[in-house]
Input
Amino acid sequence: MKTHFLIFVLLLNFSLFSFAQWSSDASVNTSVAIATGDQVIPKIATSPSGTTYISWFSGESGNYNVRLQKMDVYGNKLWADEGLLVSDHPAMSWLTDWDIAIDQEEHAIITFQDIRTGNNNIYAYRITPDGEFIWGDDGLELSNTTAFDASPKVTVTNAGNAIIAWASEDVVILQKITPEGTFLWGDNGITLSGENRYSWPQLLPVGDDDIILKYFEDSGPIMYPTRHILAQRYDMNGNPVWNEEAVISDAAGISAWTQIFPFINDGNDGFYIAWHDDRDNNMLASIFVQHIGSDGLILFADDGIEASTMPFRNHFYAKLALPPGSNDIFIVWNEMDANQNNRGIYGQKVSSSGERLWTNNGKAFIELSATDVYPFGAGNSDSDIVVFYDEYFNGMDAGIKAMRIDTDGNFVWENEIAELSTVQSQKSHPELNNFFNGQWIAVWADDRNGNNDIYGQNIQLDGTLGPVIVSINEDPLIGINNQPTDFLQVYPNPSKGKVNFSLQTSMFVESELFIFDAFGNRIKSFKINNEQNFIWDRTNYNRFQVPQGTYYYRIFSNDFDKTGKIIILE
Output
């Protein structure tokens, strides 16, 4: 089995690890991928422990190759600067949507389409934290027909299985895959078909090994469809759970270009979903939100609750946020005048009974003006919500900003708005991860260097940028560059065995050394009395040798407190 992890190169040249960390400067940001050709359509997935995978299409060789980078919680690249080459098979120059997920073992699961067989088919890869290709060098072939297969989506069930769904001309196909790469729903998956066209699937894991599938049923002309939104829950064997599909909305008015919706778990294995449509055909778009229970019952009004009834306005591009334990759902959107000349960002809070709580018109976070603003993501902390948006300097170049909003609709940050990127450049396909370890991470394609490259930026709970302080049990662990300090050297690093700590000081002081694993568990500690050189022998408290991976140290006394990273290799 092939592994692309550059272990031997790293042993020869530790500098391949790029300890740049998340930038604290909005005029700089953190480069994820800078290469010849366009780097486009990034995707991001983060685990609760802080491991982040970012994947993108790289036009480095005239073909859109697929690449993957792994980053730690502090924004350090853990693989070579150019990332891991996942696939260089031929791809179309016209790209569609694709997807990435992270499973319970912190493996990245990537799915996309390419034309390696001459036809447009779907493929999936599962890649370990060390860069090993579990599903083979060329991934798994999920389809091999002459049909046009497009826009695959992936999720991971709580049992650890991957579910992938995609559109194949007029039908939707689903496949379930074990971590080892076994197809569980037959060689060709499960096909959903009917009298009309099915398209644009999205997935939500529920229960132990179930999923909820959202999809469209389209009729009429392809470019001007009558589009209905449906959902069904499927059990571990791929059987429908609900007696009939849930009709989220059959009010129509949804354009062919309105495709991927905010679609989130309600905390009880039901879901919220939001979208915009022009069901009354008055050339003004409205935002609607629907709530479906775990049993498939409609909990809001048929066809959804309208988020704002303000007349003579357009409401586009809904985003959803749900703080843990909240009985209310929060919706934000792009507010526009009737002619779409002025734009702002508004929000609404809807109760569990479907009542609009921030007046019928919603709450204005950014009032209408000639400055173009477009929300691209919303998320939640443990207690409130955050909204990310592009703000344009001119017709082409944009910056990226965020605002944190409490559950009463008030700004949380003192300056109200935080800037993630002030670089005047064209930015496209921004993506946002979930809130973990006190931070959100946004990634996007950016032409500041001429061609498109991939950049990212974190933002902390208090609205500041830069490396986070991660709480490790009772001890704070602070991200640093892990380079030799004026009084401490740690070597070899990376190491296959013992790690030496050398205090470069003329003063003998009593100090302590703690070793933590990647999940923040303290696995070894030392008391250092009047010593300048000491060794961690790669064992834990039980004297067992720890596996390869990323570890952290903290050495401290009354006079100093230093932390850093140790890479252990096999």
Observations:
- Residues 286 and 315 are 5 Å apart (CA to CA).
- The first helix runs from residue 7 to 12.
